[in-house]
Automatic annotation (TrEMBL), chains A, B:
Protein name: Ldh family oxidoreductase
Gene3D superfamilies listed in its UniProt record: 1.10.1530.10, Hypothetical oxidoreductase yiak, domain 2, Hypothetical oxidoreductase yiak, domain 3
Keywords noted in UniProt: Oxidoreductase
Family: Belongs to the LDH2/MDH2 oxidoreductase family.
One of the Pfam families matching this protein, by short name: Ldh_2
Superkingdom of the organism of origin: Bacteria
Length: 340, 340
């Protein structure tokens, strides 16, 4: 895989999006979200999605310019109609609305419908925590996960991110409630690698270690019954707050031609002051804790990704050949048409 | 184990608490919380705790009468000083304060410090959902859980409950972020049963299947690295909002003589209307889904506990001999002293 400079990646992606009619600011923000995923080694949320996003704009299921309309249901609750805008553009506008509300009210929530895929939730949770607030971010997704004890994909991967400020910088957790990502399954299928036992079911609902068969099947929830319960609770909660689709009715984040009908929820809370030092001290106790047999150290969630990000910002980002060519082609087409 | 009528259990527990100086309403509420855990077959949160609670009042680390003082940091955020009151009494007052706030603001949070153990979180999440609102409830606890890749108990069992209204009644998830409860470990030790591999470490941080050794050690987080990350995020979030203790500094829910310094957080959100039917339909799809090999059906979280509760309300509650005797003794002492 070629190592490409992060700034060049972002500029090429920004150009491609501008070629599709996205204004400079929105194009840069969307490119930043895709880059962030690549920097943290989550390529399923990275530039792989760029070509599809441009196609979605071309097909009229994603708006190049919308940033969402806001309907305040109370001083602490804004319902956002994303107007099919780009996920990060709609999300950023929603957060800009509720951050000051959280400051004055103590807590505020944005419930977003009709936005495209917002990318890695960690991006938002980190921004909230960096601004000194506590953040909870939830999204629903296409049904790729089987219920615990079930055979069929009926639940979204329903990720959650939580951001908490500490004196050493933001603490950020971002995880899907699936055991692994469908991206990981696709990656294994691409390499011809078997899956570990327990990761997935095939289309008939039987356990399989064949990654190709799993692509048409279902991924296990993480943590067995408990992870299933949490993923389901997140899905219901997002729908209760946004009115968006449930289960197999969710479409539009993995295809190029359907309106995106999942939901996103952002909760921002103003913390009591002075806890940042205690939290940093506690995290240091965990970092210094004696590791179990077979482990080098106790890791703090999010820190490996942050270290990798710093390294890739300095040394370049490995991007699949096919993805990098596609990005350049999109940029070149935009240039040739004089659109940027 | 004797089967005891639920009403009798509650009356005996109420009398015991009144004997310790708790007013009628608070005694009944606290007894209800303990009973609720017994009805749902979670005896670790049941009447086992009654004797210790009475001792805590006697020792001056729990107040028989306090219901907490409220400091509104904004129209959606109340900081509650529990004044060492009984957990359910403080929690109920906090919820009564934020439920109308959630209605008018859209969302509201109560951050509770200095309250005693509030009991099963499901109780509150169910009440919130039954009132037509969405609830998230978090508590921290004594450090009983080792970090993923660690050897020592450094994190609380940090449970979460989520309640979402549906047309078929409240959907409620309530789970600890530990793989199992310390109550389960004690129960296995009591019966002389071995633990399954992976549940726990001994005091030296080595994996063990000896329940007795595990009592002095640490429980695994559920769901490996992801469950660890979530449990840790919940602990930090509660501290950021309440200013309460972290990790091994948390005391007062398992002993009789230390002030309780964990925290509790209640978030109540007013949902968009009309989603109850869609949520009920989706849950029915899950209920009817074809089960995997080795399973009879796909379960909806909380429903087994609710069915058991109905059964026990009709047919009686199995209570350990020692617990039932202790409850009666406490009641009789109170009667003899003319305190009730």
């Amino acid at each position: 895989m070629p190592l490409v400079d992060a700034v060049e990646l972002r500029d090429v992606a920004t150009a491609a999006l501008k070629g599709a009619g996205v204004p400079e600011g929105g194009a840069r923000l969307q490119a930043d979200l895709l880059l962030d995923a690549e920097l943290r080694a989550v390529p399923s949320h990275g530039f792989l999605r760029l070509e599809r996003l441009v196609a979605r704009i071309g097909n009229g299921v994603a708006s190049a310019t919308a940033s969402g309309s806001h309907d305040w249901r109370g001083p602490g609750f804004v319902s956002v109609d994303g107007q099919n805008g780009l996920g990060p553009v709609v999300a950023e506008a929603a957060l800009a609305a509720i951050s000051p509300a959280a400051k004055s009210q103590g807590i505020a929530v944005a419930a977003v419908a009709n936005a495209n895929h917002i990318g890695m939730l960690a991006y938002y949770a980190e921004a909230i925590a960096r601004a000194g607030q506590v953040g909870i971010v939830l999204s629903t997704s296409e049904a790729l996960v089987h219920p615990y004890g079930g055979r069929q994909a009926l639940i979204g991967t329903n990720p959650i991110a939580i951001g908490v400020p500490s004196a050493d910088g933001p603490f950020v957790v971002d995880l899907a409630t699936s055991l692994v990502s469908m991206g990981e399954i696709h990656d294994r299928a691409h390499r011809g690698q078997a899956l570990p036992e327990g990761w997935a079911l095939d289309a008939q609902g039987n356990t399989t270690t064949d990654a190709e068969a799993a692509k048409a099947g279902a991924i296990a929830p993480f943590g067995a019954a408990k992870g299933y319960a949490l993923g389901l609770a997140f899905e219901l909660m997002v729908t209760a707050l946004t009115g968006t689709a449930l289960g197999r009715d969710v479409v539009g984040t993995l295809d190029a031609d359907q309106l995106c009908n999942k939901g996103d929820v952002f909760i921002v809370i103003d913390p009591v002051s002075g806890q940042g030092e205690a939290i940093a001290r506690y995290l240091e106790i965990l970092r210094q804790a004696e590791p179990a047999d077979g482990f080098d150290q106790v890791l703090i969630p999010g820190e490996r990704g942050r270290a990798l990000k710093a390294e890739r910002l300095r040394g370049g980002v490995p991007v699949a050949d096919s993805v990098w060519s596609s990005m350049q082609r999109l940029r070149d087409t935009a240039l040739a048409r004089g659109e940027i």
